[in-house]
Amino acid sequence: MGFNCGIVGLPNVGKSTLFNALTETVSAEAANYPFCTIEPNVGRVPVPDERLERISGISASAKTVPTFLEFVDIAGLVRGASKGEGLGNQFLGNIREVDAIVMVLRCFEDENITHVEGSIDPVRDAETVMTELLLSDLESMERRIDPIEKKARSGEKEAKQQFAVMEPVLSALRDGKPARTVEIADNDRAIFRQLNLLTAKPVLYACNVEEENAADGNAHSEAVAAMAAAEGAGTVIVSAAIEAEVAQLGDAEEKREYLETLGLSEAGLDRVIRAGYSLLDLITFFTSGPKESRAWTVAAGTTAAPAAGKIHTDFERGFIAAETISYDDFIECNGEQGAKDTGKMRLEGRDYTVQDADVILFRFNV
Are 220 and 297 in contact (CB under 8 A)? Predict the structure, then answer.
């Protein structure tokens, strides 16, 4: 699938507990000491989507297959990670491989769980982690820019383009600003992505609160929300302790009843998953029929032919057309046949930009 979010943070903030709950496994050991997660654990989790269930019901599909998102549990960073403190270099390398960052911040008090900084301050913790990512990027850019600048001054066209992107990025890093704050022209985005900078990745702050604050958060999560708003990042409130309990329950009804007793309408993990999906600027389109209804993940802005290729390369290679119905029309017309009968099915070409929740039947010939 290829889209993943790295779960990062300081040690003992609930990263592995959250990951275990996300994947409903115990593959990531959760323990009260730093570096209990040495190798990054990867889990694929279904993206909750009520629209898929409705589509499947209307089509009377034998199978319902959700789309998935990958979460990578990365061991805790500590101050000085960019200089190799703890297992810093390895951890930073693992972060470099993910598409987006979910930073778990400890927003709960518990004297039985130690904190590496000795006190609870999630804003300070976030700044600690981001500083290490920024210092790592700064070192990388300062090492790479000199040879590019020399080539640019000698008149090499490609080097000129690279330097024009790298110079403002390096300037921002030196000012203590993450790379994602730099405005990059559309035609320079490929060069920017090739820099593979840690601070270029979108960030979601996951505020891990006590059980009693799972619905509305607390003063710590409010401080994180203010910080996130100032920098254009996202936040979500979750109680890893509750999610660990929910993950152990048998069926959906049992989970729903348990959450209701806590005054919660849905699991916090559902919010984390959806927020991660949004963070990566992804959309969902659907295919549906009597055999199965399935959700597919593509980046926003994807056109019909590459979207067809997500299903099978032959679909893209032999693309003819995309029979497309909007989700609202599919529901209103009670399915594909009703949409056809009322003229709500559209025949789209290979350059059509797929919209979120489109229901599509691809026609192809190879």
Answer: no
**SS3 label, residue 110:** coil
pTM, two decimal places: 0.81
Q: What pLDDT, in 10s, does the model give residues 215-260?
A: 899 999 999 999 998 887 889 999 988 988 888 887 788 888 999 9
> What SS3 state is found at 325?
strand
What are the tens digits of pLDDT across the range 204-220?
A: 999 999 999 998 999 99
DSSP H helices, the chain, are: 15-23, 50-59, 88-96, 122-153, 157-174, 189-194, 219-231, 240-248, 252-261, 268-279, 304-311, 313-317, 327-332, 336-341
Give dist(CA 164, CA 317) in Å, integer: 36
- 327 versus 281: the higher-pLDDT residue is 327
CA distance 317 to 207: 45
Q: Which residue from 358, 282, 275 is spatially nearest to 3, judged by alpha carbons?
A: 282
Phi, psi of 345 (to 5 degrees): -85, 130
Residues in contact with 296: Cβ distance below 8 Å, sequence separation at least 6, in sequence order: 67, 284, 285, 286, 287, 307, 310, 311
Residue 188's pLDDT band (cuts 50, 70, 90):
very high
CA–CA distances in Å: residue 90 to residues 39, 43, 93: 9, 19, 5
- Output the DSSP codes for 164-176: HHHHHHHHHHHTT
C-beta atoms surrounding 226 within 10 Å: 11
Q: Which residues pair with 8 in a beta bridge?
A: 103
